[in-house]
Each structure stands twice: as structure tokens, then as C-alpha cells.
Specification:
Blueprint (H helix, E strand, L loop, with lengths): L3 H21 L2 H46 L3 H13 L17
Length: 105
């Protein structure tokens, strides 16, 4: 059911559309539209460049993350290996267990 509120909203929307159309026909409106198109193309180019760089970014993130993991948690590799071995049903070997505990220093 269409009530007065819906009708008023439709009329205001149509009036705004007509006003926008008339504005875009002016020199200033055409300039504004060209500016919007230019900005949209710039954003599109930036997005495409970001997509092109994404694999490189993730590779760098993986490398730096791995280095940080090794630097800040020296036992992480051993723990992960032990976890993987336990999942596979292997027992840890003497090589996997370090002789000296890491220094606290």
C-alpha cells in the first residue's frame, strides 16, 4: 500500500534526480563528473597495483615472520617438529632434542 510518506519520498527522489541531471549538463557539472571519473580511475589503478604486489607482500611477511619466530622463540622449530613427529607417530630423535637448554641471556 502506498501512503503519503512513500509518495513524498518518490517525488523528492525524482526531483533530486532531475536537479542532478540538470547540474551535470552545466560546465561546472561536467567538470565535477570528469573529476569523479579521474578519481575513480586513480583508485582503480591503486587497487590493481596493490593486487599485483600482494604475492610479494605475503612472501615478505612469511619470510619476516619466520625470521622473527626463529629469533624470538628459538625452540619453536623443535617444538613444531616434535608436534609433527607425534602426529605422524614418530618418537623424537636425539638430534631433535638439544643438549644444552637455551641461554636466558
Amino acid at each position: 500500500m502506498v501512503n503519503a510518506k512513500h509518495l513524498a519520498t518518490f517525488i523528492l527522489g525524482a526531483a533530486a534526480g532531475v536537479a542532478l541531471h540538470k547540474y551535470l549538463q552545466t560546465e561546472e557539472g561536467e567538470k565535477t563528473l570528469e573529476d569523479l571519473k579521474s578519481k575513480a580511475n586513480d583508485l582503480k589503478s591503486e587497487a590493481e597495483q596493490a593486487l599485483d604486489k600482494m604475492p610479494e607482500y605475503f612472501e615478505q611477511l612469511k619470510t619476516e615472520g619466520s625470521e622473527a619466530l626463529k629469533k624470538y622463540t628459538p625452540e619453536a622449530e623443535r617444538l613444531l617438529q616434535e608436534l609433527l613427529d607425534s602426529i605422524k607417530g614418530k618418537t623424537p630423535t636425539a638430534e631433535a632434542v638439544p643438549n644444552d637448554p637455551p641461554s636466558q641471556g
